[in-house]
Amino acid sequence: MNAETQQRILDAIDAGFEAQLATTRDFVAIPSTRGAEGPCQDMIGDLLRERGYEVDDWHINVDDLKDLRGFGPIEHDFSKARSVVGTYRPNTEAGKSLILQGHCDVVPAGPLELWDTPPFAPVIKDGKMFGRGACDMKSGTIGALYSLDAIKAAGFKPTARIHFQSVIEEESTGVGALSTLQRGYRADACFIPEPTAGKMVRSQVGVIWFRLRVKGHPTHVAFAGSGSNAIMAAYHLVHALQKLEIEWNERAKADRHFNTLSHPINFNPGIIKGGDWASSVPAWCDVDCRIAILPGWSVADHQKEIMACVAAASRNHRFLANNPPEVEWSGFLSEGYELTDSAAPEAAFGTAFNKVYGGAVEDLVFTALTDTRFYGLNYGIPSLCFGASGGEMHGFNEYVDLDSLKKTTKAMALFIAEWCGVEKA
Fold it and tell me: Does the global pTM surpass 0.85?
């Protein structure tokens, strides 16, 4: 690809950026929390059809996925769950095929009064777009779509098959991405524009979700000593799991990528529910937890370690010793992923990055996870993850930096053109 072709594509990104932001605002405005992603998938389907892509829009059947590597248990109503894929097929097959993927699901916004502006009424100010999902990762998904638009607007068309995929469940199980693979979608490489602050994810953690179901013995609080408080017993288990977190972080010092970080393994008790009356010693408590594991660590082995930790802590508790808690697997059962066997797509992206940013792309050792793992681990498809800068993901006042978004869109467009090849339209 010559310099003139590159510049025409970059100019098309600039010319279309206001339209890109308008589409991004519309996408962010949809409150696509878990189980409510349908309107977002409708929007993506419409955008793809308007552009002439072949659209595959299907309901996900959990029974088709439950035996596949990386499947995580589904606990919520999944009856309306859908994946949407738009496929571009070239007239001339000359380049290498590509999957472009984004997830449309977002985490809950939390108390609305703690946001400066409403989370699903996106606002642009000070060079940023604010809103739930603006950063993680709706702006990246729309950026990928407008990267393809820019190639066409510049007078070119790709010479390889491209699958544009919008998935759900990235934030809790990953089965949306898994469903596209079960459906048969494959390519020579995958690119996911998660917000990475302009760095390439080199290695990322896996995640295990689990729930502690703790029993107590209820009594009137006036006679609390004769009962057993399930909430306090749950705290006892959480403290034990914090010690396990310390052990796993010591183990992480042997990892060639994560040894650069002081605390890559994060344990988080994220949801707690228990009791039913302030003057009654609570008889039950559920704690939903998340903990990370590193690439190469066995999910099953670390599940056993969690179980052993909870069992040992229970033996040291007056009530739990004879009334052991239950451990339920409640979502992610995900392996970590290290980007390997990816020299060709990385070289193509390196060319694009240098044109837009100058220099070489930096690596990112990522203490969260992305859907890239399914493509690399399950099918040997090198899966690149690179995206814009932003902040407050999963927090209040989430935002994406618009200058970084434009640069990311430009880098994606040049990468697509370099990897897939282009010819005059």
Answer: yes
Mean pLDDT of the chain: 97
Among 281, 286, 285, smallest CA distance to 228 is for 281
Q: Are strands 326-333 and 284-293 parallel, antiparallel or unpaired?
A: unpaired
Asked whether residue 222 carries a pLDDT value surpassing 90, the answer given is: no
- Among residues 414, 384, 371, the alpha carbon closest in space to that of 188 is found at 384
| Separation CA 212–CA 199 (nearest Å) | 36
Shortest CA distance to 158 belongs to which of 398, 337, 414? 414
Model confidence at 161: pLDDT above 90: yes
CA distance readout (Å), 241 to 42, 204, 291, 305: 42, 22, 9, 10
What pLDDT is stored for residue 142 in this prediction? 98
Please enumerate in sequence order all residues whose Cβ is within 8 A of that of 352, keeping only pairs 6 or more positions apart, or say none.
411, 412, 413, 414, 415, 417, 418
The helix or strand, by DSSP H or E, that contains position 217, with its residue range, turns out to be none
Where does the pLDDT of residue 200 fall: very low under 50, low under 70, confident under 90, or very high at 90 and above? very high
Backbone angles phi and psi of 68, in degrees to 5: -90, 150
Domains, the chain, with CATH or none? 3-204+336-424 (3.40.630.10), 206-334 (3.30.70.360)
The type of residue at 342 is S
Residues in CB range of 147: below 8 A, 6 or more apart: 13, 100, 409, 410, 412, 413, 416
- Which of the four pLDDT bands, split at 50, 70 and 90, describes residue 1? confident
The secondary structure of residue 215, as a DSSP letter, is E
Residues 6+ apart with CB under 8 A from 371: 101, 103, 167, 170, 174, 176, 177, 192, 383
**Cα–Cα distance between 348 and 189 in angstroms, integer?**
11
